[in-house]
């Protein structure tokens, strides 16, 4: 066992009382030898009792450590955790995600098999409430999120990014860690810089984890507004155009607003405007009905509404981001 690399799990947490027990259980159940791993939980000054739960777990499981993140947000938490880590490899965990017992073992296995610099699994998304189940179904819809490889269940191969990866601490330090100017999409930026430096990202379906998404429409809107907003910052930083899937929600929101204004000024345009909206609803309905992760007519309607929220929030955030970062210099 001494031949196994020492691994540091880094987990940012902030007010995770609802999920922290499950997250700690995922750590405890890992089959990787506990004397060859540590778990560094980085707390963003939680106020809901999360820290008490962690301290209680630390009494039973000495491999768990706790450090503070007074800057609160994820990118600062990751960097503090990586700097404090004693391991050769860093494995990123998320408090809202349940990990298979062999998650760390499989990450180390595929590092050795592929030689890839960042290794992880596809994002398997599940829900408990009807709303959360519908949100989870949207993650598998190309109509909702553009069909990124990390959202393809069962995918194996090289990709441009991975949600919860594992990488050598030395690699992260050479890249300059996560960009602390990016409050969201810090992993996309990290993997972009990794690939630009000649590194590779690999996804294996054998590296299994289950993510539980937002469970309300309001929190989902806020989440994807921020994703769209900060995606502009990543594009501006790297001076690389977004994929078409990143631009479509922005164009959709512009169409909704400008089309409505022009139709009010020139009433004959109402027909064209209405026809496009009908086409959108038809596509929304078709993709929702075909989604094998959802069943029942009411849930199909719920998924249609979630598609609209995702497009509207991401597109609006993207437009706001254009104005915010137009003259920002990275």
Please characterize this protein's 3D structure:
This protein is α/β, with parallel strands linked by helices. The chain has 2 domains: 7-121 and 162-215, Alpha-Beta Complex (Spore Coat Polysaccharide Biosynthesis Protein SpsA, Chain A); 219-325, no CATH class. The protein has 12 helices and 11 strands. It has helices spanning 20-28, 50-60, 74-84, 103-114, 130-138, 142-145, 169-175, 186-196, 217-238, 244-265, 269-290, 297-325, and strands spanning 7-13, 37-43, 64-68, 89-92, 97-99, 118-120, 124-125, 157-159, 166-168, 201-203, 209-211. The protein has a 5-stranded mixed beta sheet, sandwiched between helices. It has a 3-stranded mixed beta sheet with strand order 5-11-7. Strands 6-10-8 form a 3-stranded mixed beta sheet. Helix 1 links the parallel strand 1 (7-13) and strand 2 (37-43). The longest helix has 29 residues, at 297-325. It is globular, with a radius of gyration of 21 Å. The relative contact order is 0.12.
Describe the structure concisely for a colleague:
By secondary structure, the protein is of the alpha/beta class. 51% of the residues lie in helices and 13% in strands.
CATH topology of the largest domain: Spore Coat Polysaccharide Biosynthesis Protein SpsA, Chain A
CATH evolutionary superfamily of the largest domain: Spore Coat Polysaccharide Biosynthesis Protein SpsA, Chain A
The helix-strand sequence is EHEHEHEEHEEHHEEHHEEHHHH
* Tally of distinct domains: 2
Mean pLDDT rating: 92
What key phrases describe this protein's structure?
five-stranded mixed sheet, alpha/beta, 330 residues, three-stranded mixed sheet, Spore Coat Polysaccharide Biosynthesis Protein SpsA, Chain A, 11 strands, 2 domains
